[in-house]
Task: structure prediction
Amino acid sequence: MLPVGGIIVGVIALLLGGYSAIKLSSVNKALAAHEERLARVDAVESQAATSAASAEKAARDVNALSRSTQDAFNQVAAELGNLRAGITKLEESAKAAPVATRSTGGAPAVAGPDEYIIKSGDTGAKIAREKGVSLADLQAVNPGVNWTRLAVGQKIKLPKK
Result:
């Protein structure tokens, strides 16, 4: 009976071994399929990390470009302000430039007996003191004169003493 029992146990072992081999083969196939999927997931994860790094770099580049563009606009605005101020000064000086009366032939203007020709550094008070008249009288006989902007070569009338 012992040999028959050994044969039965051997047959059972063979059947179990065959079943195990079949199951091991299917497990190996499933494991290979999972490894392929895992490799694909790793590839997608790598692409996502690369894309995220590229997006961050692009965002930094856009911010840097925005700052440099704003700086350039600020510089241009400052220069435009300077140009506008220069143009305004030129316009004001063109409006305020008196027309010096000159005699023919380009000779300098000559004052008459009751006239005075403005020189550099002259003011109304200085002229009044120099000529021995009051500033109020000097201003009264020259109503159209802008005393804050006397021009060299400009003629003014002198009051009688």
Summary: The first strand starts at residue 115 and ends at 117. The CA atoms of residues 100 and 154 lie 6 Å apart. Residues 100-105 have pLDDT under 50 and may be disordered.
